[in-house]
Amino acid sequence: MDIAGLSMALAQTKVMNDFSTAMLAKSMDTTEAISESMIQMMEQSVTPNLGTNIDIRL
Predict the structure, then answer these.
(1) Which InterPro entries match (predicted)?
(2) d(CA 43, CA 35)
(3) Which terminus of the chain, N or C, has fewer Cβ atoms within 10 Å?
């Protein structure tokens, strides 16, 4: 293999690696945002007084 071909292959591999890393970072950011919104929804749906009083009269 000649040096020019090797250089091109290494440059292409670096570009693909950089692209993959950027896409992974974007995916992680999106997942974090979705997780935060899901946590907020779960916190808002909680009824804190549910189950504190039980009516046992017959």
Answers:
(1) YjfB_motility
(2) 12
(3) C
CA 22, 39, 26 angle in degrees (round to 5)?
5
pLDDT at 1: 62
- The one-letter amino acid code at 13 reads T
Tokens standing for residue 2: 């000649």
Place of tokens 């690696």: 17
DSSP 14-41: HHHHHHHHHHHHHHHHHHHHHHHHHHHH
Instruction: Look at the block and give the residue holding tokens 């999106």.
Output: 30
Give residue-wise pLDDT tens across range 1-57: 699 999 999 999 999 999 999 999 999 999 999 999 999 888 877 777 776 777 787
